[in-house]
């Protein structure tokens, strides 16, 4: 089977620095062989209430600003910077994408014509933004379903059916937590999404926030065609997402293991494969002929 597409979720792990962002893209493509380098785009004045914007950052050890708003602004790239990152990805031959967290961000990113735009779990109920994207953006829309009820997922898929855009929709199974303990990953939800919506939408994906790379292989066998994992250059860097991210060697091994598993997930094309012929000749039990002499 075809290997799932692997999204290196850079998110805000660039620490607000374009050079680090480009290094992350380069390593994701050249060393890890990921398919997509993904960012996040927010308009913080639109997304946050005045009180949230001005509140002291709840996690001072990881703060890039005194208030939550200042912290978020520090980590934000402008639309022009996203265009520069997309051009950089295009030149390297890796797909650029970003999640959009509000309508303004959607309107800024859609004109860059990325192959896909992601809707984070936190915003999959922003129907004004979803409607605008469905009507104005022609690429694939990938929607994550962490912290979302089954009824809300049903409404979401039906919304895209109504818009005639369900065949451009990829729905991700996700548990929103950083990191997510294994018992809360609930991988079988991939199968549930596949059974319920597999025929209606373009594909089912998995957005993982767990540690390690063991269970992504299981996600593949359950039918995930897109796998997204947080990724950083150094898990000890300042910021909330780094410690729940893969470093380059982890992402490289993830791609390698998903590649190997995808190749292995098939039936035998012949009852005895060519590779087995020599062994069959050499090792297969043969009843000894008894000589009469
Ligand atoms: C937070 C995001 O996604 P998820 O909900 O899949 O974690 C995102 O893509 O920005």
What report would you give on this structure?
- With 293 residues, this protein is an alpha/beta fold.
- The chain has a single domain, classed as Aldolase class I (TIM Barrel), CATH 3.20.20.
- The chain is 40% helix and 15% strand.
- It is built from 12 helices and 8 strands.
- It has an 8-stranded parallel barrel with strand order 1-2-3-4-5-6-7-8, surrounded by 6 helices.
- Strand 4, helix 7 and strand 5 form a beta-alpha-beta unit.
- Helix 10 runs parallel beside helix 11.
- It is elongated.
- The termini are far apart.
- The model has no long low-confidence stretch (mean pLDDT 96).
- The structure holds phosphoenolpyruvate (PEP).
- The site of phosphoenolpyruvate (PEP) has 11 residues, from strand 6.
Show the helix and strand layout.
Elements (H helix, E strand, L loop, with lengths): L4 E7 L6 H13 L5 E6 L2 H4 L2 H5 L13 H7 L4 H14 L2 E6 L2 H7 L6 E4 L7 H10 L3 E5 L5 H13 L6 E6 L13 H10 L5 E6 L5 H8 L4 E5 L17 H17 L9 H10 L10
Parallel strand pairs: 1-2, 1-8, 2-3, 3-4, 4-5, 5-6, 6-7, 7-8
Helix pairs in contact: 1-5, 6-7, 10-11
The structure holds phosphoenolpyruvate.
